[in-house]
Design a protein that fits this description.
By secondary structure, the protein is an alpha+beta fold. It has helices at residues 54-82, 115-119, 123-142, 197-204, 218-233, 245-250, 265-272, 283-292, 321-337; strands at 6-7, 10-12, 17-19, 23-30, 33-40, 93-97, 100-106, 145-146, 155-161, 164-169, 176-177, 307-308, 313-314. It is built from nine helices and 13 strands. Strands 1, 2, 3, 4, 5, 6 and 7 form a seven-stranded antiparallel beta sheet that branches. A two-stranded antiparallel ribbon has the order 8-11. Helix 3 packs antiparallel against helix 8.
Length: 342
């Protein structure tokens, strides 16, 4: 499809561009509104004139029907739960045109806060953001859906007021139901630096020995642990080897952080980054832990009865009228000594 083409009622605004190797993306217009549109490069629905035997075509059609049913079910569950304008940005349309599948989302402003910007905020603000993302992820996990590709780019953080932040989740193309990941491992893309240990192991299993039952909601928790580390410290967890977090945890390397963390945060992150999925807290427990963390107010310098050093704030002593009268008398006596009486 090219700029100016009409696709299922959507006018394509620019030529499609390859994104990530598994899809093409563009923008479209319909009814005066602008949309983001994605074309899946796989699977391709076989038409009667497609190459290959009829047996192969039947297999491909079955795979396509499963792909379509999966995406429609995920999208409907999210849409029914959140509605338009919620914190989970789901597709407004999913369809097949000829041999290709397409997904349409409302165009949203993706210029959210970066990890670097978040990490420079006061700790209390970072806690607010973390709790906001927890609330969004909790909606998904309540539906028993694993996001599958959590990363900062897929969590849009917006500041809507003083100490008011929202965390919107986007891109559910890699989502699946807990303990039931795609059987076609080549269809799992994700972002390697945010893989959980079990996701990496599942993808690399070429012999089909791993059935995917370990691919639960806990996989998102591990990834969220990496992201929260970035929010609080500005970097991913640090190990003595420069390897992905999932690999370091699999090897049993000690985790360290580039910044001193508030009481309770470090312990929480270490639990989220556990190798064993069953050792990780669920999203509700994480949210509760974050709510219980208190940030100590900065101590004010002690008063020396004069100015608070460096603050420019005058602190007056309590008035003592008798002492003031004595000081005035002493002052007048000193002055009097230098005067001649007439």
């Amino acid at each position: 499809m090219k700029k100016g083409d009409i696709l299922n009622g959507y006018k394509i605004l620019e030529d499609f561009k390859v994104a990530g190797g598994m899809s093409k993306i563009s923008f479209a217009e319909r009814g005066g509104k602008e949309y983001f549109i994605k074309e899946f490069l796989s699977p391709k629905y076989p038409t009667p004139d497609s190459p290959g035997s009829e047996k192969i075509k039947v297999q491909k059609r079955k795979a396509c029907e499963e792909f379509e049913a999966h995406h429609r079910k995920i999208n409907k569950l999210i849409g029914d739960r959140t509605g338009s304008g919620g914190n989970l940005v789901y597709a407004v349309a999913f369809f097949r045109n000829d041999t290709s599948y397409y997904k349409v989302n409302e165009k949203i402003d993706t210029s959210g806060m970066s990890v670097e910007e978040i990490s420079r905020l006061p700790v209390e603000n970072i806690l607010i953001i973390a709790k906001s993302v927890c609330s969004s992820l909790n909606i998904l996990h309540d539906l028993n859906i694993v996001h599958g590709d959590l990363k900062p780019d897929n969590i849009l953080i917006k500041q809507t007021g003083e100490k008011i932040y929202t965390g919107k989740l986007i891109d559910f193309d890699d989502s699946y139901f807990s303990a039931n990941p795609p059987k076609d491992k080549e269809a799992i893309v994700g972002t390697p630096e945010y893989y959980s240990p079990e996701l990496a192991t599942y993808i690399m299993d070429e012999d089909g020995e791993i059935d995917g039952t370990s691919m639960t909601l806990a996989s998102d928790i591990f990834t969220f642990g990496i992201i929260l580390t970035e929010y609080f410290t500005g970097t991913k967890p640090v190990f003595r080897e420069e390897i992905p977090t999932w690999n370091a945890v699999n090897k049993g390397l000690e985790i360290s952080f580039t910044r001193k963390l508030p009481d309770g945060i470090e312990e929480l992150l270490r639990k989220m980054l556990s190798k064993n999925p069953s050792d990780r807290p669920d999203i509700k427990s994480i949210h509760l832990s974050l709510r219980c963390i208190k940030v100590a107010a900065p101590e004010l310098p002690k008063s020396d009865g004069g100015l608070l050093r460096g603050k420019g704030i005058g602190i007056a002593k309590p008035k003592d009228e008798k002492a003031e009268r004595i000081e005035r008398v002493k002052g007048s006596l000193k002055i009097g000594k230098g005067l001649k009486s007439e």
